[in-house]
Amino acid sequence: MNIQWYPGHMTRAKRKIENDIKLVDIVIELRDARCPLASANPDIKKVTGNKKRLVLLNKSDLADENVTKAWIDYFKADGVAAIAFDSRSRDGIDRIRKAAAELTKEKRERDAARGITGSRPVKCMILGIPNVGKSTFINSMLGKASAKTGNKPGVTKGNQWVNVNNEMLLLDTPGVLWPKFDDEETAYCLAEIGSINDQVINIEELSVKLLDFLYDNYRDRLFERYEITEESFDKKLENMSTEVLGVSIRALALLDLIAVKRGCIKRGGEPDYERGAKAFMDDFRSGKLGRISLQRPKQ
């Protein structure tokens, strides 16, 4: 499956970011904790240049806790300030404020040496790919819902400043992808977490790709969620051909069982793979399958 999605408004958003980067002290880059590398827009580093950067591994409540800890160590070893964060709660806000203050410490010292005194808010640009939770993060920082939020990529349409208790000024920006995904695995990860519009992908193919990964890495959790037994799984495998259009037979067998379990049945009793795939992807994205990480630092 060739996954590409780059709406025209993203080009305009990128230009606006390039123009506004000079207005801020630091960049706060949100990534999805389930796939910290795939959810990193390679253009961000080019656009932001030498600006100090804080990486937030957002939606950490949906990611494997041990894997997230390994990612924090990975970034630390690379000299990048990183914090695991769940933007739907306010836990960790103090750590973010302290990290932002630390990243601007040198600038404030330089200002003081030039005779510029007095405190002023730290100006932060909020960057990230679509559906990574930027607006929800801002709402969490404010303690109220003032920025639009949604579970579809592309809710934020224009850049806007938000004042957080006169300590931080946050410049919200629309989610921006990059024009071409050279790595197929990156594209799949982005589609799986919902950063690519479902209307431009094959949801059935996407689901079997994810099911194949979960079988290898979170099999017990998958079987428990959908009440799949070893016996029912083996029986389903026996009744299927060895390969269907290059798709993993075990993943297709799982999708079949999941569709039946979720009541996604066509007339005549056949499983409705499309509906079953949508139900499964909704379960994964909402965390009903438990805490799952799609990437590990060793990769």
Q: In summary, what is this structure?
A:
The chain is α/β, with parallel strands linked by helices and 299 residues long. The protein is 43% helix and 12% strand.
Give the SSE layout.
Layout: H1 8-20, E1 26-32, H2 42-48, E2 52-58, H3 65-77, E3 81-84, H4 93-103, H5 105-113, E4 122-128, H6 134-142, E5 160-164, E6 168-172, H7 184-192, H8 203-217, H9 219-225, H10 230-238, H11 249-261, H12 273-285
Parallel strand pairs: 1-2, 1-4, 2-3, 4-6
Antiparallel strand pairs: 5-6
Question: What would your notes on this structure say?
Answer:
It is a single chain. This protein has 299 residues and is of the alpha/beta class. The chain is built from twelve helices and six strands. The chain has helices at 8-20, 42-48, 65-77, 93-103, 105-113, 134-142, 184-192, 203-217, 219-225, 230-238, 249-261, 273-285, and strands at 26-32, 52-58, 81-84, 122-128, 160-164, 168-172. Strands 3-2-1-4-6-5 form a six-stranded mixed sheet. Strand 2 (52-58), helix 3 (65-77) and strand 3 (81-84) form a beta-alpha-beta unit. The longest helix is centred in the C-terminal third of the chain and has 15 residues, at 203-217.
